[in-house]
Amino acid sequence: MSLRRTASSTPERESTTTAVAGADSSERTPLLSEQVRQAGPSSSSSPLAATTAADSSRRHRSREHCQRRATKPLLPKAIVRGLGVLLALLVIALFAAIVVQEIKDRRDPRFGKGRNYPAVLAHGTHGAVAAESHRCSQIGVDVLKQNGTAVDAAIAATFCTGVVNMFSSGLGGGGFMTVRVPRKCTEAEKRRNKQKRYCSDKHVIDFRETAPAASHSRMFEGDPMAARIGGLSVGVPGELLGIEEAHRRWGKLSWSRLVEPSIKLAESTYVSRELDRRLKMFGTFMLTDPDWAPTFVNADTGTLLRAGDTIRRPGLANLLRAVASQGSKALYEGPFAKSIVDKVQEKGGILTLEDLASYKIRVLEPVEGTWYNRSIFTTPAPTSGPVLISLLKVLSTYPDWNEPGSYMSGLTAHRFIEAMKFTSGQRTHIGDPAFLNKSALDAIDELASEPAVNHMRSKIDDERTHDEIDYYEPLFDVRDSHGTMHLSTVDESGMAVALTSTVNLIFGSQVLDPVSGVILNDEMDDSSTPGVPNAFGLFPSPFNYPEPGKRPLSSTAPAIIEHADGSFYLAIGGAGGSRIYGSIAQVLLNLDWGYTLSDAIERPRIHHQLLPHQVSAETTTEPSRLDGLTDRGHELEVLDINLAVAEVQAVMCLADGGPLQGRRRRDVWAASDSRKEGVAVAY
């Protein structure tokens, strides 16, 4: 089946946030993990714990929400209480056994040390925000509590992330968002699909950075580092215009209300442990850079700021005040725009005021696929959304994929890696659709077609991998990508957002305009440069050569998934460059294997992008999986899981018949990846 483009037309008391013990476990029993999480939060902590079935029914008729109907108890209360006590004792005993097993497993030299940050599973009954910073998740939930939409919450959290995790994203970057807008089903839709009870429209906003008007295909020949550091690497940013358009269409609260919390953070906040870590790893250049030092260097000690230190970004605070009152004009016109352009050109760039004034977002139809009995909607080219759907379709051709214990299987790991290698080859077909001919566009549309999927499946050999790159049929070489932030939100109506934004490399181009406080992207590094083939004989992709106004290839794939009845299931996405779509797929697999949302995100991941020719496995990956890969000829690279090379954020509503069947209402769950100190909030 070809890709289908759908019609576009600190947590408060009432938030339940559960710390996940032993999040780096490599041998946890999936369903026991679910039980342990449920045993943690007290239902009495929620003011809605006593919601009656009648109240639930009335709300169900008025809006979709994440609720379920009350069910009649099957056993007398006394028996239920007795069983509950026995179950609790059993859980405690088994949990102790799990902890012992974890400690024993960590003696394996391949496991490395434990995790830097605790994992958190947030639970609520109204809505949730999963951002990569606890502060930003809370800001988003505060918006939801004031009757803001999921889009409002996503916007507020995006502003926040650009302030506190400026190494990943900000107003100097760009990205994509997938939005689910619930609505009533038409009579025709009901007749066409009797199983469908809920309907919605899905939209994609493309606010990806574009190449400046003076760009040309050979602009980085002889100086590849110029695509990574300095003014020439800067693309025209789009983040502010993208979220502004989303607010115009689906926002409810005032624009200034969404900006205000981030103004305060820009005026003064604290350095997080994650920012501290990034400064240590990537911030040495700031010590001698007069644009960066006033913000990131301690004036008394002459050293980089540390966790807990106060950080002030007065220039950004001034810009955000202007954005709150003027909207995007504050950045794309006037004195702030001139200051940004002057700074980029001072650093050797070609960005102009005309580039800023002429930037256009795109509102697109998502691409659609299926994952077992669910529908998945994600971003089209130039993102890796089509490749994500292709990967999932290849994996779904294995009938035993969801069998108990298959997660631990070396064969399962091998099949996943082989599917990753084939779909990484497919990724070389992708470019900016506005610059592709019909033949190239048709090729993208057919990436997840039944013939293409069957072809890849037929070439996966359960006994061995293949060293020949040509076996996986890549067309060209493509650039690796980096960095990025992702956040996911859902509100009480069932509106949901999956938003990914980036400045590309950590701290982008290393160009900071002190007047506006904006850190500029180095998105031109995602473009390809004509030249000699790589070590494997692959030439750079002409689909991805720099051209004026062109959007470079993106690894992002923010996705929204619905149950078979059309209700909301999951908003998910990730950060981490070329590892993003494989990380999303592994979280989906973990959910199907019975893990909680937090455990599904926290479990160690494996990765292969065809080039370089090796499997990357995180520490704490099960020895059985590693052995299953090496036995089939794979070369292994083991990375410390705390390096945070890829992170996933997601919000979820469980379906009837799921592990929480019998509760009075559906529950909202949210989790942010602890690899990046992420903490989600729900209420």
UniProtKB/TrEMBL annotation:
The keyword Electron transport is assigned to this record: no
Comp. bias (Low complexity): 39-55
Protein's GO biological process: glutathione catabolic process
Pathway: Sulfur metabolism; glutathione metabolism
One Pfam family it belongs to: G_glu_transpept
Active site: 484
Transmembrane segments: 78-100
Catalytic activity, as annotated: an N-terminal (5-L-glutamyl)-[peptide] + an alpha-amino acid = 5-L-glutamyl amino acid + an N-terminal L-alpha-aminoacyl-[peptide]; an S-substituted glutathione + H2O = an S-substituted L-cysteinylglycine + L-glutamate; glutathione + H2O = L-cysteinylglycine + L-glutamate
A cellular component annotation (GO) from this entry: plasma membrane
Protein name, entry field: Glutathione hydrolase
